[in-house]
């Protein structure tokens, strides 16, 4: 593995950093934001500026309006975009759209790509991904899926309930996961459907209040009541929904790591700058061992996170599934990012818990990362299962 960043990606990184510093960070206190995310007017304004600079949709193929970066190059650019919470939105590389666009590019037919992928890549519309359900439905265990899609003479009739559907408010495309078989086993029996989110069969129950507020449209609890869809709205093949979910989720876990690493770097930079200027007991507080070691630990966590990301990205670019590496990256990066922001807040002291700096908000934004796209405990369990299965087939000299 070569750690050298290609010259063209280094230039793109510099352009991204300049865009974030000059165009995006000055908008961080724009009033067109609330507890459920930035408003679409602000997002579209930033999208227009990113497009003019050639920075829009870095993960999408050039054929569909993006920059066509591979995972390794995305690691560099996504981290740079994450330096501001608005950065990924501005560059159209944020969840859930980024993961949805990737899945559409891999799985959808040409007609579906023209209808949905192209406008998504141009940031003309937004999307959501309806998979998670309230108890006793699908959460960390996707096989507990309760939403059903029954085949009728008129098409597919979908009924069920979902929640924590990120970006639902204002989304045009809703990608719905539903059970199409009475029995779900070995990853078969679920199907994905591409549905216009304005369909009257999709009903919002409520917008859920959460501790973070960086995703346009917030998170919603919704239900499907006799939602009728046609065969041409099926994504890929009937019964293959779990397979396609992995197409989406494995890279999406890693791209989350990339963006949140950029945010953690921002918190660390704020704390380091403050520690070099604030004096107590005769010297800069960063020169006192207690704080100096905390900031050093941040440096270690940042570098280790970056190495996890780059290694997993490289494996994905080689065509590997990288399931273990993807889970390891998700665990380490989500927990490291929280440690980094927590130490940054401690370094800032009283100011750290106020909105005088971005660190207080980053603390709230980064904490949920240890839960979404699979809690740390579930990823540890998955790694352990593979570890035990592998060990059982080996004869190790004792």
Can you summarize the main beta sheet? 4 strands, mixed
Q: Spatial order of the strands in the main sheet?
A: 3-6-7-10
How many distinct helices? Answer: 11
Structural class: alpha+beta
Tell me the name of the CATH class of the largest domain: Mainly Alpha
Share in helix: 40-55%
Number of domains: 3
Radius of gyration: 22 Å
Number of strands: 12
H and E string: HEEHHHHHEEEEEEEEHEEHHHH
Shape: globular
The average pLDDT is: 97
| Oligomeric state of the chains in view | single chain
CATH architecture of the largest domain: Up-down Bundle
Beta-sheet strand percentage? 15-25%
CATH topology of the largest domain: Butyryl-CoA Dehydrogenase, subunit A, domain 3
């Amino acid at each position: 593995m070569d750690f050298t960043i290609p010259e063209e990606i280094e230039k793109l990184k510099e352009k991204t950093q300049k865009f974030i510093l000059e165009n995006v960070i000055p908008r961080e206190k724009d009033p067109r934001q609330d507890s459920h995310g930035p408003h679409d007017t602000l997002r579209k304004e930033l999208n227009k500026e990113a497009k003019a600079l050639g920075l829009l949709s870095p993960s999408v193929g050039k054929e569909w309006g993006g920059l066509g970066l591979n995972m390794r190059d995305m690691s560099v650019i996504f981290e740079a975009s994450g330096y501001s919470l608005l950065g990924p939105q501005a560059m159209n590389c944020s969840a859930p759209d980024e993961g949805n666009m990737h899945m559409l590019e891999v799985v959808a037919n040409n007609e579906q790509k023209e209808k949905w992928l192209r406008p998504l890549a141009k940031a003309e519309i937004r999307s959501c991904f309806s998979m998670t359900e309230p108890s006793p439905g699908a959460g960390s265990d996707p096989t507990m899926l309760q939403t059903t899609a029954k085949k009728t003479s008129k098409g597919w009739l979908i009924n069920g309930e979902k929640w924590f559907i990120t970006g639902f408010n204002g989304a045009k495309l809703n990608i719905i996961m539903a059970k199409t078989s009475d029995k779900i086993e070995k990853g078969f029996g679920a199907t994905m459907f591409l549905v216009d989110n304005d369909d009257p069969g999709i009903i919002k129950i409520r917008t859920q209040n959460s501790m973070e507020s960086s995703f346009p449209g917030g998170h919603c609890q919704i239900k499907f009541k006799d939602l009728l869809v046609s065969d041409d709205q099926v994504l890929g093949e009937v019964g293959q929904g779990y397979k396609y979910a992995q197409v989406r989720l494995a890279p999406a876990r890693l791209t989350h790591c990339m963006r949140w690493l950029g945010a953690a770097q921002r918190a660390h930079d704020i704390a380091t700058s403050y520690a070099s200027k604030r004096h107590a007991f005769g010297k800069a507080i960063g020169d006192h061992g207690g704080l100096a070691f905390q900031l050093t630990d941040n440096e270690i966590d940042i570098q280790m996170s970056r190495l996890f990301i780059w290694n997993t990205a490289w494996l994905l670019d080689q065509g590997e599934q990288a399931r273990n590496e993807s889970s390891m990256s998700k665990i380490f990066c989500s927990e490291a990012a929280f440690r980094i922001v927590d130490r940054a807040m401690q370094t800032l002291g009283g100011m750290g818990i106020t909105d005088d700096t971005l660190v207080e908000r980053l603390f709230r934004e980064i904490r949920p990362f240890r839960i979404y796209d699979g809690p740390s405990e579930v990823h540890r369990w998955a790694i352990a299962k593979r570890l035990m299965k592998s060990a059982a087939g080996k004869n190790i000299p004792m």
